[in-house]
Amino acid sequence: MKTLRLGTRKSPLARTQSQMVADQVMKSNPGLKVELVGIETQGDRILDVALSQIDGKEFFVKELDTALLNKEVDFTVHSLKDLSLERPSGVKLAAIPAREDIRDVLLFNRHALDRMVANKPLRIGTSSPRRLHNLSEFLKVGLPKVSDHASPKFEFVEIRGNVHTRLSRIHEKVSHAKYLDGVVLALAGLSRLAEASESRDSIVELLCDVRWMIPPLSQNPTSPGQGALAVECREDDEATYSAIRPIHDADSFQQISRERELMAEWGGGCHQRFGISVVDAGRVGSVMFQKGLKANNESVDDLIWDEPEHRVFSNCKIWDGMKCRPRRDALEVSVPKKPVYFVANARSVLGINTTQLNNARVWCSGFRSWRKLAEMGVWVEGCADSLGFEFIRPLIGKRILSLPKLEEWCVLTHSKAVSGWQECEAIAPYDVVFEDDSFYAEGLGTADVVFWASGYQFDCYSKFVSENVVHCCGAGKTADHLTTHLKQDFFPFPSYKSWLKFINKRNRV
Predict the structure, then answer these.
(1) pTM of the model
(2) Distance between alpha carbon 309 and the CA centroid of its chain, in Å?
(3) pLDDT level of residue 57 (50, 70, 90 thresholds)
(4) Do 28 and 264 meet the contact criterion of CB atoms below 8 Å apart?
(5) Which residues, including other chains, have CB under 8 Å from residue 285's CB and lie 6 or more apart?
(6) Which of the residues 176, 214, 278, 389 has an alpha carbon 20 to 30 A from that of 265?
(7) CATH number corresponding to 327-433
(8) What is the C-alpha to C-alpha distance for residues 220 and 104, in angstroms, rounded to an integer?
(9) Handedness of CA 153, 368, 423, 187 (dihedral sign)
């Protein structure tokens, strides 16, 4: 039986990731055996200095590269975000397996909220300049407001070490010098450790009684390549390359290539203060979130997506459904006790007792809703980044998050949208009441482009549009509704803001 030697760092996460790759390679090559070879790197040895303060590159890969080129191992596995853009001569990328979830996660001690109530700043551990920059801005409005007289307080603490070491610090006694209220980690690493039999029990134990917070990608895009692995071999070793290549995922490679192209343009590495995340947003296409500071201190905050190919919207009359604000009447409802609530719109909690939400896990549709909920004192765990509920559905099945099945969720929405939720209980704390037909008939009848703010709005007023009108909407339930009820093509956008940007650019053509 032929054996290939796989070089890997010695940390639990690195060995877990390498074993995953080894299993995939062996499955693709019956009769082949892969043996892991542990190698210590500079980044593993130097734990008392922040990576941003260390000169040079390849802190976690140089020793692996040396072992590979010296033929001590046949191939190596790296977290792709650790790789610089310039790789040594003689080293070849053989495969990028399917990418894990790319998001960051903040894990807080369960008593963090009590410390906020006591007006004490939360001590949060991270060593990433990108996270320091973007999360500083997000947490000011993303943490729940617990006082009418003060905003949430927090401070960042430099932290190094493996995942287990970092997580253990939020379980120290408050009086301990190493105590932290929270740590920032990559969700991908946690997920992989939770799936591996060797580390599952220890990770689950460290995640007992913690508060989760998965920041929106719009506010905290991640390092280029985060969530992906890079499998490399020697350029002249065609046999090993051929054995590895079947585990390559073309879609993941394409996403990462776009991210790293911008990293090359903007200047990246361990010192970078910006995030770039490319995700598949279903019918919307690929969406790229960008936020932070480039190497030249230029600020960037943008959402880029694969624009739809259709007629040019120049010199056309637009009807903007978002500007047709309906009246919102509160309804007296009883909110059922559920382990998870999905708030489809921040208005959904007006008039209800939000203390009930604080005893559950709360997710919402986008950052605007998150911000309003936090202002009301609600701890939000995550959101759909305005891309629709389907964008967070994959997280429900992850062992690491322990989110219950969808039938155990409760959706808070308006009365006209309740019927659109078939898999879980949906209730309506408010109703929407639009103006009478005459208010819309004239504008819709002459419009060339229509943006629908909701499926209910479409049902009420699509009768007024011309046959050749271009229908547009946001992602999510509205797009689902138009798919069912509209025979012609329509164009969903990642968000209303992105639609406005698209229209304004087209009108300048």
Answers:
(1) 0.92
(2) 27
(3) low
(4) no
(5) 305, 306, 308
(6) 214
(7) 3.40.50.10090
(8) 8
(9) negative
